[in-house]
Design goal:
The chain is mostly helical and 171 residues long. It is built from 10 helices and no strands. 33% of the residues are buried. The model has no long low-confidence stretch (mean pLDDT 87).
C-alpha cells in the first residue's frame, strides 16, 4: 500500500522482499506474490518477458481472478499489442474484482505514462478502463482523445483506433 501511494522504488522493493519472506514461511496458493514479482520485473528492468511469465503462472493458479488479466493487458499494451490488450480487458471487465482494482490499475498506468509519455498507446487502456469498468465517459473521452492525437497513430491497432473513433462519435 505504501508503494501505491509513494511510487518510490525502495517501497516497491521492500514490499516484494516482505512478500517473498512471507511466502517462505507460509507458501501461498494466491497470486499476490507473483503479481508483485511481475510488477518488480517491469518497474525495475522493464523485463516484460519475465513479468509475463509471472502473469502466466497466475493464470494457471487462478484463472478467474481479474488481477492477472489487467496485468497481462497492460504488458501487451506496453508492447503495443492493443488487440491482445483489449482481449484481456474484455475478459477481466465482467468479473467481480472489488471496488479498488480499477482505480489501482488506472493509477499504475497513469504513473507509467507520466514516466514514459511516448507510450501514448497506454491512453487507449485508460480510455477503455474508464469506458467499460468505471463508466466514466468524460475521462474515457479525454484519454481516447490523447490516444488519437498521438504522432505514433500509424503504429496502433486499427481495431483500437476504430473503437476509439466510434466511442468519440457517440460521446
Amino acid at each position: 500500500a505504501r508503494w501505491e501511494v509513494s511510487r518510490d522504488s525502495n517501497d516497491l522493493q521492500n514490499s516484494i522482499d516482505w512478500i517473498v519472506k512471507y511466502d517462505k514461511i507460509k507458501p501461498a496458493e494466491n497470486i499476490h506474490i507473483l503479481l508483485m514479482r511481475a510488477i518488480g520485473y517491469f518497474v525495475f528492468s522493464r523485463d516484460i518477458d519475465a513479468a509475463m511469465r509471472c502473469i502466466n503462472q497466475c493464470k494457471s493458479r487462478c484463472i478467474t481472478d481479474p488481477s492477472w488479466k489487467y496485468s497481462a493487458a497492460f504488458l501487451e499494451a506496453y508492447r503495443n499489442n492493443l488487440d491482445n490488450a483489449k482481449q484481456f480487458y474484455d475478459a477481466a471487465i465482467p468479473t467481480e474484482s472489488g471496488y479498488f482494482l480499477p482505480f489501482q490499475v488506472e493509477g499504475f498506468i497513469a504513473w507509467i505514462l507520466d514516466i514514459e509519455p511516448q507510450k501514448t498507446q497506454l491512453n487507449f487502456c485508460l480510455g477503455y478502463l474508464n469506458e467499460f469498468f468505471k463508466n466514466d465517459s468524460v475521462s474515457a473521452r479525454q484519454y481516447y482523445s490523447n490516444f488519437l492525437s498521438s504522432t505514433y497513430q500509424e503504429a496502433f491497432s486499427k481495431s483500437a483506433i476504430e473503437h476509439t473513433k466510434t466511442f468519440m462519435t457517440a460521446h
